[in-house]
Amino acid sequence: GNSVTQMEGPVTLSEEAFLTINCTYTATGYPSLFWYVQYPGEGLQLLLKATKADDKGSNKGFEATYRKETTSFHLEKGSVQVSDSAVYFCALIFSNAGGTSYGKLTFGQGTILTVHP
Amino acid sequence: DSGVTQTPKHLITATGQRVTLRCSPRSGDLSVYWYQQSLDQGLQFLIQYYNGEERAKGNILERFSAQQFPDLHSELNLSSLELGDSALYFCASGGGYSPLHFGNGTRLTVT
């Protein structure tokens, strides 16, 4: 079955540091990949997505590239801010060759990021 | 604002009781998904409905049930509640060519 593995947290960084949160997946077919972010006391918000191999998703300074050869979708940001403190979830959903997704999102366990001034 | 509305925001109830959580999907979305988020289990998929019909089932207990109505809103019913059912319950809508968008969740506390 489909599964997502994220790096263990929590991750603690100083402001303006470089961020990497590793995510690898196991899936059949053509999964679409996502990063969701959950700020304290809030629901999950879509941060970025990639629907096919070599796609790069980007938003708010965050980036992730869909690497089929390494089955990875690592999240990166060049300079984090205190306001980036949140829980980050990597997720996948099965998609057909045409990009239509089916079924449920499978989530990784989440990585807590804390950024200090 | 994701466009997905969940009510109530908080719910406190006693063991053995029954509660109903409500979700209104984004306009135009036919699918509704329910997830449970707890500290020890992470985000667990419970069930999906598509245009009124059950489409997929995950780790949903027999004490829990859901339905989607003709106006596409969905309800998650939790009965014979136990302390371990305390969690955040999220609803999401979307799918197909659209990513899933989540509501802000209902925080259930069972005392």
Chain pair with largest interface: A-B, 22 and 21 residues
The residue-averaged pLDDT of chain B reads 93
Low-confidence runs of chain A: none
Order of helices and strands of chain B: EEEEEEEEEEE
Fraction of residues in helix of chain A? under 10%
Following the backbone from N to C, one meets helices and strands of chain A in this order, namely: EEEEEEEEEEEE
* Euclidean distance between termini CA atoms of chain A: 41 Å
Using the CA coordinates, give the radius of gyration of chain A: 14 Å
Which stretches of chain B are poorly predicted, pLDDT < 50 over at least 5 residues?
none
Largest beta-sheet details of chain A: 6 strands, mixed
Q: How many beta strands in the DSSP annotation of chain B? A: 11
Shape of chain A: globular
Largest sheet of chain B: 7 strands, mixed
User: Radius of gyration of chain B, Cα only, in angstroms?
Assistant: 13 Å
Distance between the termini of chain B: 31 Å
Helix coverage percent of chain B: under 10%
Q: Approximately how much beta-strand content do the residues of chain B carry? A: over 45%
Shape of chain B: globular
Q: How many distinct beta strands of chain A? A: 12
* SS-derived structural category of chain A: mainly beta
Number of helices of chain B: 0
